[in-house]
Amino acid sequence: MKAKASFASKFWVGVLVFSLCALAARAQQQESQDAKAQEMVRVAMKTELDASRDDHSHWEYKDTYRNAEGESIFRVVETAKGALKKKIEHNGRSLNDAELKQEDARIETFVHDPAQQAKQRKDGAQDDKRAEDLLRMLPDAFLWKVVNDSGEAVTLGFVPNPEFNPPTMESRVFASMAGEIVVDKDQHRIQTIKGKLTDDVKFGFGLFGRMKKGGTFEIERRELAPKIWQITESHVHIEGKALLFKTIGEQEDDVKSEFRRTPAETTLEQAAEKLKGEPVSLSARR
């Protein structure tokens, strides 16, 4: 399994948060299927799955992550054996020497712990499998139409397909989305995908959980090298209640930048040594 997250896996991260506590009630839409638009989605879906299978590249990048606890900046180095991640800033403050040493110690522990590495690979494989299953449903779970065609890219709108019978909880929530995707027409690659929860999502008649209508996710991607696409931004914003009284929420923004190719032969030890130079090297590149 690749150490880095595939498009399908990252796409699943955007969708998964909607299934934390819910069985979705699908919206009944009075729209018909546009066979041409559906076929474009089917080709893009197959292209993405094939590309994910064939892409063995790894990357180093800056990761700016924001949630309810604030904003953190990380440096990430992917390798064939796993991915290492070092926090260097939090809420606009650079980590001090003691905190950076703690980060380095945590990374060293991972580098020399096969059990942690195996768990990372297992978790990634499970995410990839769930994501692949959902991505395969994409053409049939929704009713598709062409919204705009610029010549270079086409925007396709989607709403829930009332005739689709989702087999799992995740796919039921997945099938309750509405939104748009933008597909590069030359390469048949998905550039962006935006979705919104079409109804309040309840289970146990709302006693045990409810996700509020209007929750959104957005994924943006770009081509880093010829025919190699990566997620550069993901945004997830939902609210709700779970377990009777507990308020839940997912307010999450993740922006990746400063991508550089990691040499294929890079080891975990070499990646850890490279990260020990942060944040000095980050400051030098600003």
What does this structure look like?
- This protein has 286 residues and is α+β, with helices and mostly antiparallel strands.
- It has one domain.
- 33% of the residues lie in helices and 38% in strands.
- The chain has 7 helices and 13 strands.
- Strands 1, 2, 3, 4, 5, 6, 7, 8, 9, 10, 11, 12 and 13 form a 13-stranded antiparallel beta sheet that branches.
- A hairpin with a 3-residue loop joins strand 12 and strand 13.
- Helix 1 crosses helix 4, helix 2 runs antiparallel to helix 4 and helix 3 runs antiparallel to helix 6.
- It is globular and about 60 Å long.
- The protein starts with 6 loop residues before the first helix and ends with a helix.
Question: Can you give me a brief rundown of this structure?
Answer:
This protein is an alpha+beta fold. The chain has helices at 7-16, 35-54, 97-111, 114-141, 169-174, 268-275, 280-285, and strands at residues 59-67, 70-79, 82-90, 93-94, 142-149, 153-160, 177-184, 189-197, 201-203, 209-211, 216-225, 228-242, 246-261.
Q: Rg to the nearest angstrom?
A: 20 Å
The portion of residues forming beta strands comes to 35-45%
Specify the overall morphology. globular
Which sheet architecture does the biggest sheet show? 13 strands, antiparallel
End-to-end CA span: 33 Å
Taking pLDDT < 50 over at least 5 consecutive residues as the criterion, the unreliable ranges are 12-29, 282-286
Number of strands: 13
Helix count equals 7
